Predict the structure.
Amino acid sequence: MTVGALLPDLRRFLPPVTAVAGAAAFGAILVVAIGESPAAVLRTVIGGILGTPDGLAAVLFNATALIFTGLSVAFAFRAGLFNIGAEGQLLMGAFLATLTGLAFPRLPAVMLVPLCVLAAAAGGAAWAAVPGLLRARLGVHEVINTIMMNFIAAGLTGYCTVHLLKEPGQMIPHTPPIPAAAWIPRLGDLRLPGNPLPASSPANVSLFLALAVAAGAAWILHRTPFGFRVRALGSGEPAARTAGIPTGRTLVAAMALAGAFAGLAGVNEVLGFRHRFLDNFTSGVGFLGIAVALLGRARPAGVVAAALLFGGLNAGAVEIDLFTEVPREVVLVVEAGILLFVVAGDDLARRVLSRIRRPADAEILGPGEEEG
């Protein structure tokens, strides 16, 4: 295999590897400055998240939500859109899933669970379709729209939770629990050979839904006419319009589908974990999905891998806080560093690959020939 044949793979994998390595080195410098050993801290993190059932369950639970929000941002990226509204879309998906469960308490599980899942997807899709319509019809940039929709979602769900649906006699702003028929199993409850996860862990079978959605997103992008239109739109809206692609409809549909992915993260929270809607529960998962999508190169498989990494970092922050003198905020710095380094890594990859390409091109062209 020639060097030139390897260039696409290098271009794809070099920025994420550079980002993780750079952020890890920066985190190690911070740990040394605090007075701790980076090797000891790393052993604590790995032992805590992979050496104990509870740690592994925390990684899987965190990664599940990040797969959904990362896919939301990544799918919009592929259409040339910057979806910063996954946080609000997640809130609306979780809220509608809760409302659906409370509205149909007598339905059997075989009907209620799918209905709640569809409600979560519909809530996220509807919330994302609004910025898509504004972009398609009025040319208003989706970054501004999605940010504003986040605030509206937080205010709307917060008001409804506190003033209309709050569980009587409770100080905590949350709704009453949804019926048990709407609950989905925890991973620890599954009777699988060698299952190490405890029944008390929050990880649940929505992880399988997240993996199925990731596979479905990849199939849509690369095996369907709609996916082709999405990728063509992301390559250039004027060119896609010239080629006869209905850019307006494609844009709105892509944004709505991205919102549906984010809304499905509510299944992990409501149906699989809390079994109710808790006001302001997201803790920045929607925004962290941006970092997951960037590190995953806006590809479903990359998003899954990046979500597992960030899920491990979030779970490791608890171990660091409990068993070392390093504050858990160092993990937030490392996560932010990954985002910064992955952006810088794109430029670095272009520089490195341009140096590799020159001798390869010269070898192909032969002595005395010039590139046309």
User: Anything to note?
Assistant: The chain has 14 helices and no strands. The CA atoms of residues 280 and 291 lie 21 Å apart.
